[in-house]
Amino acid sequence: MTEALKAYPSLQLFCGDDGYRETSVLHAFKVLKKEFMLSPKIKGLIVFPKRWVVEQTFAWLGNCRRLAKDFEKRVKYAESWIRIAMLSIMFNKVEAPEIL
Q1: 45 — pLDDT class (breaks 50, 70, 90)
Q2: How many angstroms separate the CA atoms of 92 and 86, rounded?
Q3: Model pTM?
């Protein structure tokens, strides 16, 4: 969290689930002087809209053969393949215009 705050000084709030209850909350509050919002304890399965978007995106990227394993030796190459995969996913979701 400290490095994230250095990289993005405008951060006002950190979020996490119940697994972060002890150390992260104390670190955010005492050391960083920032608020740490915990999601409430929930019984059963509830889909959080933003979390679902992230998880679905990772699932789509996992379908790309090149991204299924860490084949790349450099991070910039892996980032490039993620961009290529996302472009492919977006192009497949765009509807073709009707031709008169």
Answers
A1: low
A2: 10
A3: 0.45
Backbone angles phi, psi at 65, to 5 degrees: -55, -40
Residue with tokens 């977006």: 90
pLDDT (tens digit, 9 = 90+) per residue, 3-38? Answer: 877 888 887 777 766 666 667 767 776 777 777 666
Which of 44, 26, 43, 22 has the alpha carbon at shortest distance from 35? 26
Closest CA to 66 of 93, 84, 53: 84
SS3 97: coil
**In this structure, are residues 14 and 36 in contact, taking their beta carbons and an 8 Å threshold?**
yes
| Residue 67, CB-side half-sphere exposure with 13 Å CA sphere | 19
- Return all residues near 67 (Cβ < 8 A) that are at least 6 apart: 61, 78, 81, 82, 85
Amino acid at 25: V
Q: How far apart are CA 50 and CA 55, in angstroms?
A: 9
The mean pLDDT of the chain is 76
